[in-house]
Write a structure and sequence with these properties.
The chain contains 7 helices and 7 strands; from the N terminus they run H-E-E-E-H-E-H-E-E-E-H-H-H-H. The protein is of the alpha+beta class and 263 residues long. The two termini are 47 Å apart. The chain has a domain at 69-183: PAS domain (Beta-Lactamase, 2-Layer Sandwich). Helix 2 (68-75) runs antiparallel to helix 5. It is elongated, with a radius of gyration of 25 Å. The longest helix is centred in the last third of the chain and has 42 residues, at 168-209. The strands form 2 sheets. Strands 4-7-6-5 form a 4-stranded antiparallel beta sheet, sandwiched between helices.
């Protein structure tokens, strides 16, 4: 059951059966993008266990993230040529990031049935000359990202590739390098931007649980993690204040009780 949340409507709800809750009991877990009814759009959830000083599980810390940043990462390296594009798909072949040449919102709402996507979600990596999601002949480089269970597709229209002064081999090399760079950027930024901050958050929460009541979390980011840190700091300040009040009242209370007992 949710004990505290930045979204008051979530409090009191059971999260048993949710992947981020069940897997977050043992280690840091990142749930791949899904449609969130609260955000009315795609989101990712990251979770981590909270343990007592004795090492016992006392709860699960979870933060829901908007996946727009993921689209920005993937598309950051596109636009170097007129027709190049890059996007991610999940194991069910649904678009996870918004393709460059589709105007309607398709993230987690539409599947891609291209051969490159089918090969990619089968766990393969390679190069294909095939129609893309618009039916246009393209050179597509696909890479499977096993740790994230996502497929990265980088493509370019064949007429642009073959119409340039570069050789076919150089064009393939260029598109391949784009895919490699994009895959590397996705992997690195996911690790730096999501997993590491949560591990740090988890460690600091554990220290607080062991009695370091003066500890506070950094509130630098403006995403869900930053909001969670601010909420935690407010809660920590309240707990510290209550404990200080109890400690200051403790020497007085027994004396009062003793006087009342004597009378």
């Amino acid at each position: 059951m949710v004990l505290a949340s930045t979204n008051a409507r979530e409090e009191g709800k059971s999260k048993t059966g949710h992947p981020y809750f069940d897997n977050g009991k043992t280690d840091v877990f990142v749930q791949n993008p899904y449609l969130s009814p609260d955000l009315h759009g795609p989101a990712m959830t990251i979770s981590a266990p909270i343990r007592s000083a004795a090492g016992e599980l006392v709860g699960v810390l979870a933060a829901r993230l908007n996946v727009q940043g993921l689209s920005d990462i993937v598309r950051k390296r596109t636009g170097l040529r007129q027709t190049d594009d890059a996007y991610l798909v999940n194991t069910d072949r649904f678009f996870v990031t918004q393709p460059r040449f589709l105007s309607e919102r398709v993230v987690l709402r539409r599947q891609s049935q291209t051969n490159a996507v089918k090969q990619c979600v089968a766990g393969n990596s390679g190069v294909l000359l095939n129609p893309d999601y618009l039916g246009v002949p393209v050179i597509a480089v696909y890479r499977w990202l096993p740790q994230r269970k996502l497929g990265l597709i980088v493509k370019m229209r064949q007429d642009e590739a073959f119409g340039s002064d570069r050789s076919f081999r150089n064009t393939i090399t260029l598109v391949g390098l784009l895919a490699l760079v994009a895959a590397s950027v996705v992997a690195v930024l996911l690790a730096r931007g999501i997993v590491r901050p949560v591990r740090d958050l988890q460690e600091r929460v554990a220290r607080f649980g062991r009695g370091d009541l003066e500890l506070r979390l950094p509130e630098k980011s403006r995403d869900e993690l930053g909001l969670l840190a601010r909420e935690f700091n407010q809660m920590a300040a309240a707990i510290s204040g209550k404990e200080a009040e109890l400690e200051s009242a403790w020497p007085i209370a027994p004396a009062n009780w003793q006087r009342r007992t004597c009378t």
